[in-house]
């Protein structure tokens, strides 16, 4: 029997429990994977709490992982037993030691990329690529505001934006996180808990504002992010770590002819050609050293509840990765 974290009721981290599960043989177009590393994301916390009601219960949460192909189903081409693959899926099921996966979601990993790093960076990196090249195509000379610049997505976003020739203003919640943001290439860092980030952004930009604001914090920063926009500036909200954003009057955008987006990465990688192109761009940036990432902090799969607690209380000093091989029966 395989092991999986089962979610039977919404609630706090304690509702995540390890259970034995049966995994059958792969059907047509499927792979059977022995998983080696599983990414932990805020999305998982939203699903567990019930903020996102996108996983039918009972179900196995988790949206990204790395594994080894054990068996292929009928009609599968391009994959063979022994291949190392990574994936991101809106269909969940990643918090498990073994699973079945549609082959169309799998990406072969570059030979030099460790499993732990791939599980740490794939979803975050695809999100950064989406934000910088799809949702708002950043060009040289533009000025960006990146909230949570020391976070997993934030650091990738800042490094990549600098490579594109943008000026990056990052916000962080502490002095230690501010140093991480600077190390990620931010030209200016604002500790938003101690100073008015709107006033600082306007001072830095000589009252012009920013071309695009990337906001994953949500409720606490949304209004301020809107105030930071330049004429025809673009606010991209891609998360809500501080809570859901209240209902929004679209007429507020008219003050500076602004635009607002709420992208979901799954919609951008739904077609195989787009998934391959976006992942190739990410892998190339990592291989070149233009964007750097470190493998996340490993925890056993059985400690998924603790991982969620660390993430939600902002105690995690690095991205978190679950290791199925440390699972107890």
From TrEMBL:
GO cellular component terms listed in the entry, alphabetical order: cytosol
Q: Which GO terms describe its molecular function?
A: mRNA 3'-UTR AU-rich region binding; NADPH binding; quinone reductase (NADPH) activity
UniProt-listed SMART domains: PKS_ER
Q: Which UniProt keywords apply?
A: NADP, Oxidoreductase
Q: Which Pfam families match?
A: ADH_N, ADH_zinc_N
Q: Which residues cross the membrane?
A: none
Record domain Enoyl reductase (ER): where: 11-322
Q: What protein does this entry describe?
A: Quinone oxidoreductase
Upper lineage is:
Bacteria, Pseudomonadati, Pseudomonadota, Alphaproteobacteria, Acetobacterales
